[in-house]
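Student: I would love a firmer grasp of how sequence relates to backbone shape in proteins. I am handing you a single protein, as its sequence and its fold in token form. I am told such tokens are a discrete way to write the fold. I hope you can help me see how the letters and the tokens relate. Take your time, and here it is.
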Amino acid sequence: MDLRRTLNLILTKLNGGLVRVLKAARRPPEWRSKVKEATKSPSNRLCLMGLILGMALTLIAEDLQAQTQTPNLQTAVEGTQTPQDQKIQQLQDKLEEIQKQLMELKKANSAQPATHFTSTAKASAAPSALTEEEPEITDPSNPKSVPFAFADFTWLNGNARTKDTPYATRFFTPEIRSDVNYTYDFRHPQDDTISGSSEIFRSSEVQVTQLGVGGDFHYDNVRARLMTQFGLYSQTTPRNDASPARGQWNLADAYRYISEAYGGYHFNIQHGVNVDAGIFMSYVGLFSYYQFDNWAYQPSYVSSNTPWFFNGVRVQWFPTAKLKIEPWFINGWQSYGRFNNRPGLGGQILYRPNAKWSILGNQYGYGEDALGVSSRTRYHTDDSVEYKYYDRPTARISKAAATLTGDMGCESGGGVSCFGNGKNGPKQSFLGFMFYNRLWFDRDRYAMTIGGGRINNPGRYLVLLPPINGATAASGTPYFTENPGDPYKAWDVSLTGDYMPSQYFTYRLEYNHRAANVPYFSGPGGVTPPGGNTGTPGSIVPGWSPDLRYSENRITGALLVKF
């Protein structure tokens, strides 16, 4: 036979072999349901396909051998072999080689467990309560379901909008973040220094606010997370913590390049219990420490002036798939160490009854967080509601949501009082709120956010100290005092536009107006003495004073990456 007829014969036999294998596999309906269940895994399906194809190829090889046996014997007797017979023999050898490779592939896949990709852990959401070998259960009524997995909560302010991490493995879910911004300050401070922000620090320059590399480790119920912080955050965040001024071993340098670092264990109790120790995000004030996760780049004062991290121990208890209860035992209020002789105690309650609502409460107390004043105790409550009131993915406006956050707090003892001016001292309190509304467009590729807030903080114990002549939270400065009873009221408004061509990338353009009842923001003269900082941090420089103004206006453009 010629080569064309040989190839046609092989194709016909291959088709016939597959049909015979499929007919031989017919069984009653209950058997087929078991087969369907067994082939849910991609590796099982691959093995089954390899087995079927291997059996088909075996049948084909047998048929070809039967058809070519006589000519081959004849040519062997005659001592000659036609070119057609040689080609047929080569095809038979090739079929046997393919069959062998399929069997080896089947064995390799049966020995290797399937890999399931997991989403990156969020600041307010629980890491998966299941191991990677198990499929994710999203039904909240199932006692083994993953907390908060019953709906898509990537729309929340403070939660990353990434839905997956495609390069995650069974043991590690990597995470990379990049935050680069350019800010134009309409005051044009000559030293390019922006005051009173925990997110924006320089004007008229391209600056790396944060570059973080890390991720989540998870195996056999053991868990750990590490996120580094390079860029301006590595300098500005430790600068706002006064606790390293107490005692030896420079804690600010020890933790400078770490934003999150903790390890713990997951207990399979109810919907999960996690016990972690180290540095973790506080989530007080709703906004995330990472700008990519937020609706706005510069959050209002309620977030900007409250803690971004805690150093201590937390327990995350999920009695249901919709509820988290999280107590804290921590060193203090956004501090690497204790300010005095007492730690801080607090906790969080997070409830998400459905895909539209998220209700969050954070409470703090007991800690003595005024450096060198051991008898002054701080109390604080921070409570937020987020509501998605519109969701039509294919419409021009694809989504709409709003958030409202309210904070109250005070300090008591050490010459101040929670309850007004009196014999125990002047009132030292914090009262603030912020509101944001966000619209998404064109299948969530574009978004616009408008919002702002207001605070009243007599005593200024939560107000970010301007970096006048290199002042830090520990040094203070006579140019902007934080004495009991010092008044401070401030308000702000912002308008933010986002372009999000990918779930891993955001281009953001934002306008901010901020104002206060006392001079606080950098003016054209700046907050740095001529020639640079002089003397000890925050000290008086003869013949010079900072240029502080009552308000500021600025525009920020940022490129935000997370994957």
